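Why do we care about 3D structure at all? Because function follows from shape, and shape follows, mostly, from sequence. That is the central idea of this module. The next example makes it concrete: a single protein chain, its amino acid sequence, and then its structure expressed as tokens.
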Amino acid sequence: MQQIDIKYHLLTLICILSVRHSQSFQTTFLGTRRINSLYRWNQVSTSVQRRYYVASPIDKVDEINSTEKQLQPQMSLSPDQEDYFNSLEKPVYGAPFIERLRELQGYKNEFGSCYVPKRYPDNPKLGNWVNKSRQMYRKYLQGEKSSMTPERIEALNKIGFIWSGFEDLSMAVPVSIGGPNIEGSSTDISRKNAALKVNATWMRSFQELKQYMEEEKDAPSASSKLGAWAARQRRARQNLQLGVKTTMTEDRIELLESIGFDWSPWDTKWNMRIQELRDYKQRFGDCMVPVHWKENPKLGSWVSTQRKYYKLHKAGETARITKERIRQLTEVGFVWDRMEYLWNEEVGLHSL
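And the structure:
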């Protein structure tokens, strides 16, 4: 039976080739009807074999691995990089981690950055792994259960991993000029390029603010360019809380808070001055802080300014002081009228 099947297959193959090369073969050898019959039989036979053929588990695994390797982009590594990844110990880092790290290095070699889109069509597993690594890193910092380890963090830092998802976006290559192949219309691509530029500009300002706060140990003046940018971030966050369209995101909020960004600097400064005034009264017995007090010039100037605001408020004019703040100062023992206080002290009214 097996020999007959082989003969029919060979005969069918000869007939098909002959049909292509010699029209006369159909009529001189077997005839057109016989050729068509054999051709249909071969199709049915092949279909039945495919239907009832059961591949072994090993064949299936090899087929899946082969398909994945063909679908994933092959990104080359330098000899030094190959040596580095081969030197990583699997018991310490884990084989899957090393493999993804190798792919990330290849991605950086190709595109110049470790900014892998979460939905990266050329290698979805890499995009998901990068995003998951950031999540595990945040849990690690918060002391929660995480697969992230100091060794893995060091290895990721070594190749320039982007922990925030926005950091160093100026290094990301726009998709229209050779970056990752992201499917979409030309309008979608233009929007993504514009988003990259916006994020890169935002990150530059963020880095400037971070450097300023590290050096000055304080927030920038509201009148400065950097201070104006910080004020815009506060307004953007308020819009986000109100559900108004804004460029602020949770990731940006997290970044700003990571450097100690003050969302309510006026309240923070107010509470600080109130506490300084309490300390002054406990030390000297009153709230008559000299305008040019050398020990704390800012407190003396602040006290003088509150008196001016209070006078404007009493006159019914616009002033940067509220009834609540007036109440707070009064409770501390604030001197609203300096001359009246000195007169009463001179005639001895305060001792009565």
